[in-house]
Each structure stands twice: as C-alpha cells, then as structure tokens.
Amino acid sequence: MTPAAFDSRRFQGVRWAIYAVLILAYMSVFFHRMAPAVVSAELMAAFHTTGAALGSLAAMYYYVYTAMQIPAGVLADTVGTRTVAMLGNLVAGIGSIVFGLAETLEMALLGRFLVGLGVSVIFVGLMKSNTVWFRERIYGLISGVTLLLGNIGSVLAAGPLAWLLGHVSWRSAFIGIGVFSLLLAVLSLLIVRNRPEDVGFPSLRAMEGKHAHAAREKHWLHDMRVVWTSWRVWPGFWFNFGMAGSLFAFAGLWGIPLLRDVHGLSRDEAAQYTTLTLLAMALGTLLLGWISDRLGRRKPVMALSALLYLLVCAALLWLPWGPGLGGMALFALLGLCGSGFVLSYACAKEVCAPALSGMAISVVNTGLFLGAAIMQPLFGWVLDQGWNGAMRDGLRLYSGADYHTALWLMLGFAVVALVAVARLTETRGRNITVT
C-alpha cells in the first residue's frame, strides 16, 4: 500500500466520520422542527392553549432560529464548524430537557427557545463543512444527500414518534432526545474538524492541483455587509420564505390537526400523511440535487419545483380530496414538489466568494425559517377567527371552512416563491466569483 493510497483512505475515513456526527445532529434539528405536529393535542391539553398560542409555542423554535441564521453564518466562517456543532448540540440538549420537564407554558417556551438557539447553528455549520470536505462539482448532490438524511429526523418525528407516544409520555421522548444531543456535543468536540488542513491533509483544491480559494482578509462585519448587499443572494431568501417556509409550517404543525378535525383521522393515521410529505421531500432533495448537477443548471429545476408546488397548494385548497389514496398523493406531492429549496443553498454559495459561503447560506436559510415563523401562528390565528366554540376532549375543534380559509396562506406563500425564482442568477453549478 503506497503512502498516497493510505492517505487517501485515511482522508475518506476522517471526512465521513465528521459528516456522520454532523448529520446525526442535523437529524435532531428536523426532529425538533416537526415533532410539535404529533404532540399538538398533548401540548394543548397540558398548557391549555388556543390555536394561536400553540402556533406561537411551536414557532418559538423558528423565531430564534431565524434570528440566529446570520450569526450562525458568521460563526461558521470565523470560529468554524467544530465549535459551532459542539455548542449548538449542548444548548439544544439542555433546551429539550427543559421542554420535557416544563409544567407551565412559560417554561415550555423557554425550552423551545433554547432548542431553537442550539439547533440554529447546526445546518449552516454542516453546509460550510461540506464546502471544504467535498468537491464543488458534486455540491448539489451532497446537499441533496444531506437534506435526505436530515429529513429522516422529520420522519422519526411523525409516524415513529406517534407510535412511541403509545408507550412513553411526550415528556420522556423530549428528555431522551435532549440526552442524545448532549452526547453529540461530546462527539463534535472529539471528531469534527473545520478543514482538511487541521488534520494534516492538503485542501481539496490542492488535491486537484488547483490554487486555493482566497481566505478571508477583512473583518467579518465587512464580509457580512458584502453578502447582505449582494442582489444575487436575496432571491434565494424569498424562494425559501415562500416555498420551504410554508411547507415546514404545514407539515410541522397544522397538517395533522387538519386531518384530525376535518376528516376524523386519529393522530397515528394523520401522522402517516405528514410522514409521506416528509419522505417525499427527503427523496426529492436528493433527486433534484442530482438532476441539477447533471444538467449543470440550478434555475430551471427550481422554477419547475416552484410552479408544481403552487399547483399542489391550489389542489389542497380547491380539489374535493379526502382520506385515502387521493389525500396521500396530495401530501406526497406537496413534499416532492417543495423539495426544490435544496438548490437555494448551492446557488447562495456559488454567487459569493468561497470564504463567505457560510454567511451566504445563512441568508437564504433565514428566509425558510422566517416564513415558517410567520406562517405557523398566522395559520392558527386564522383558525381562531372562525372558531365557533366547539370543543372535543378539551381541545378546540376547527371546521373545514376554517382550514379552507387558512390554506389560502399556503397558496399566497407559494406565489412568493414563484415570483422569486424569476430573479435567481443561473450559476451553472460553479462559483461565478472565481475565474
């Protein structure tokens, strides 16, 4: 075995070990994001909430996540992924345990705040890590793989969590995931490294016989201003705001109550529909990332995704669908067509200098979570406006007309995404700032 072969094998081992730790942390991010939909009834009963209050409790995650996206990008580009992942998992673990132990709505809000604060830095750190550990020409594919694996956390927060709640309390489930996050904090410290050079390897570009990308030379405030004032970055922000924001808000909270209240499904039955949404989204991110890399195009794939997503939202609003194959098909198509948001991250890092990729990714990611943070409580507020006072087992019962009115929000957000895609810059799968 030659030294070069040995070094190559060791490089692969180190790279995938780092990726494994970060992807496990990212799966927990998705779990926390989607779990409130499954435990919505328990949360309303435990804390005696209205629809708007439940939306605010679930959206607390999104509020802090949104506010932290720009700092997350700065941290990823300055202190590095290792520190970001360690601290993020530590704070999220503590927050999940607080949430599981909460006896009041205020303590539950604090727990969700800490969870959102902790997990808010994981994705940007992971995507930053991918830029230095994987070749540029497969970044769309590796982004798709990342979203696919991360979405397994969403799937675990749907059907499997609903099954688990038949055996343990919702409090025990959140305490358990909190302990898991604390373990990931330790693994991040021991295994994760910021770049190949930190463990004695040359950079990827050096391995390919290319000159290294220019390093950051100015203060991060200057670099952040460069990213924020780039007109090429912001269409991705609005694309994510409209498409991914509404998709995550619906699948992460209001999809299950809709199926329960309007169609009479049990929680376990309703969770199967949102599980289909999340599985389709996971597979779609992988498929569209691969297609985009093969075509060498970003914009046409994202445009088709936005158009189809708009049509599915219109179908949810106007078609006479119900439980069964028709409803399942609509929920699956919602996730599949909405998966085009995965390419927004590739676009973001390809329109800014490579050294600023973390900040660029964080800007477009902010759109996703701002959209969800606005949609979740707004959807609940619309439901509350039409509520006729009906109750069942201590929970507010909303009518089909109430949900029909609220679903107009989904359609409006989808229009925002379709308009934004027209302003995207086509990068042809490469960084347009590098000659």
What does this structure look like?
With 435 residues, this protein is mostly helical. It has a single domain, classed as Growth Hormone, Chain: A. Helices cover 76% and strands 1% of the residues. It has 18 helices and two strands. The chain has helices at 3-38, 40-47, 51-78, 81-101, 105-119, 122-133, 139-156, 159-164, 170-191, 204-207, 220-228, 234-263, 267-295, 299-318, 325-337, 342-350, 357-386, 400-421; strands at 391-392, 395-396. The chain has a two-stranded antiparallel sheet with strand order 1-2. Helix 7 runs antiparallel to helix 16 (342-350). The radius of gyration is 21 Å and the shape is globular.
Question: Topology, pairings included?
Answer:
Layout: H1 3-38, H2 40-47, H3 51-78, H4 81-101, H5 105-119, H6 122-133, H7 139-156, H8 159-164, H9 170-191, H10 204-207, H11 220-228, H12 234-263, H13 267-295, H14 299-318, H15 325-337, H16 342-350, H17 357-386, E1 391-392, E2 395-396, H18 400-421
Antiparallel strand pairs: 1-2
